[in-house]
Amino acid sequence: MATLCLAGCLMLSGCVTVPETGRTQLNLLSPAEESRLGFAAFEEMKGEIPVSEDPEVNRLVQEVGKRIAAVADLPGAEWEFVVFDSPEVNAFCLPGGKVGVYTGILGVTQNEGGMATVLGHEVAHAVARHGGERVSQAMLMQTGGQALGAALGGTEESTQAAAATIYGLGAQLGVALPHSRRQEAEADEIGLLYMARAGYNPEEAVSFWERFGDFNQQQGGGAPWFLRTHPMDADRIENLKRLLPAAAAEYRQARQRPQR
What we know:
Blueprint: H1 2-13, E1 15-17, E2 24-26, H2 31-48, H3 55-70, E3 80-84, E4 91-94, E5 98-102, H4 106-109, H5 112-127, H6 130-151, H7 157-197, H8 203-218, H9 233-256
Parallel strand pairs: 3-5
Antiparallel strand pairs: 1-2, 4-5
């Protein structure tokens, strides 16, 4: 009972609102705590993964990254954009504004608009504090597992083991994976607005994800939808198309502003 009460108190005290979307999220970490974790992890990665020395790629990432960061709502962020020399077709953003782009994704980005799509999406993860939310979710799931174990303390070991397995599978498929897909869709939405406000045509986002979908198909299509941490490519593209009118309005306003 005490464990459940603690979980309830944590949920009440850790509710915050995501910028742009207005979604209420559970985040038990302070922005400063998140940033410390992100900074430490990023420094470790820079020491382990080769950093690209390609001047043209670095120029592109720095220029696009700075434009996206300039319209992002993340007080106290220490933005840093690093290109890692790796064939992995991916990019990431750690709490506090540390963004990494793997050279493997350049074949899919193809142009400045594609890069703006990727960086807008990753910056959105930081602004929405998705990293801290995932950590908070894991903490709460651990508390739930402990509560289940305490409740079954007087039963046979086989019953406890079976219950723990069912709880773990249910938590992963019913909570963690859908939650991650929701975060990805939210980063798509916020990132689309950010790239438009930075002066990049939001229609480029649809083109990028269509290319990414083709790439995924060439790689075999990936896991079934219910085991994916990301939305299905077709669903993602349709959602972006639905969001395009609002982003297009932001893009028109951005183009009317005098360039610095």
